[in-house]
Amino acid sequence: MAATHNLVRLDEVTKITPFPNSTTSFHLPLTYFDTFWILTPPVERLFFYEVAHLTSEIFNLTILPKLKHSLSLTLFHYLPLAGHLTWPSDAEKPAIYYSPNDGVSVTVAVSNADFNILASDGIREAAEFRPLTPQLVISEDKAEAVAIQITLFPNEGFSIGISFHHVVADGKSSTTFMKAWAYLCKLKATEKNPYLLSPDLTPSFDRTVIKDTKGLDMVYLKSMLAAIGSDSSRSLKHDFSAGLVNQNNLVRATFKLTREDINKLRYKVLSINGNQYEVGQSKQLHLSTFVLSLSYAYVCMVKANGEEASTNVVFGFPANCRTVWILRFRLIISVIVLNHLPWLRRQVIS
To answer: How high is the mean pLDDT of the chain?
Structure first.
């Protein structure tokens, strides 16, 4: 495995404000869906865009201004992301505050790393990606909602690294924001029509639809603070890297499962225990691509940790509660995977 020796030079740090600028201050209260994540690491995304023969001149005169302008238009629809998570001294819990002229910090950088290696599916050192993702500025009573870094790889392309405070945006909302940014950038929107955003990409900030009759928001908040021995603390500052393994010992790789691979996995599971669930039976076990790939990944993790085949494995993943059917679907999926993981552990991995 070859290291890319990623040295990054910072060329510019600027603040991108929403367009048009909002003249009204507001605050968005946190719900129990938010306070649960008060001390969790940021949601981070890193996107690579290959552009052959990309010179600094083309990047700085064409691509970068377009990215900044479309970001400004996008922030108009996502005003909370232009603000800060703040915990006033007289407030029981933090909230997201936005004031006129607030904006998102955008860092522009240049990297000498091998773009093709970083953007490939091969094995790469995890530490090589860290310089491409910005760190959120967090103090005792105030935290950035979002930070962005745009990095040029001369003659190869560029990357966009973005960090969201988990209280402000989860995986779903951060993905929707990125899609909205891409949507406006692709449309070549101008200052004359800054509202060109499709309904499916337009966020809702109506907190009244979330009912918290049990006061779970404060239960979660106090629980999270107590977890670090600071149940009386009001600090937003936390070392997210505490307890994590040394990233210098980690690698990243992409593994692709083809349709043929999925079918082989399905056949092996269905043929277990004397063909109890053979293809064609009326009570055939349903195994989706999601169930098979997720189970396969967890089995590989179990074996990589040197665990015995009889080891009980417990795992979980967040459910999207924005619509009830999605929640039900994911709960059913998780039950199926847990029920049949032992079969896969014994049979699928040779």
So the answer is: 81
Between 278 and 23, name the one with better pLDDT.
23
For 210, the token pair is 């979330």
DSSP-based helix, strand, coil % in the chain, nearest 5: 40, 15, 45
Rounded CA separation 171/169 (Å): 7
Side-chain-facing half-sphere of 91: CA atoms under 13 Å = 17
The two structure tokens encoding residue 228:
């670090």
**From 32-46, 259-273, 274-288, the region with the lowest mean pLDDT:** 274-288
pLDDT of 134: 95
The Cα-based distances of 165 to 113, 115, 182, 217 in angstroms read 27, 27, 20, 17
Query: Is there a contact between 137 and 146 (Cβ–Cβ < 8 Å)?
Result: no
Highest mean pLDDT: which range of 20-29, 48-57, 314-323: 48-57
Q: Give 150's strand partners.
A: 108, 160
Q: What does the alpha-carbon distance between residue 221 and residue 231 come to, in Å, rounded to a whole number?
A: 9
d(CA 97, CA 91): 12
pLDDT class for 140, splitting at 50, 70, 90? confident
Phi and psi (nearest 5°) for 35? -65, -20
Given strand 8-16, what is the order of strands in its sheet? 8-16, 104-111, 146-153, 157-164, 43-50
Task: Give percent of the chain with pLDDT exceeding 70.
Answer: 78
* 26-226-213-335 Cα dihedral, nearest 10 degrees: 110
Q: What DSSP line would sit under 132-179, residue for residue?
A: GSPPPPB-SSEEESEEEEEEEETTTEEEEEEEE-TTT--HHHHHHHHH
- Supply the DSSP symbol for 212: -
Q: What does the alpha-carbon distance between residue 288 and residue 74 come to, in Å, rounded to a whole number?
A: 36
> Whole-angstrom Cα distance, residue 19 to residue 327?
35
Burial environment of residue 313 by CB neighbours within 10 A (0 to 12, 13 to 18, 19 or more): middle
Nearest CA to 341 among 294, 308, 290? 294
Residue 52 predicted with pLDDT over 60: yes
Q: What is the pTM of this model?
A: 0.81
Contact 7, 102 (CB under 8 A): no
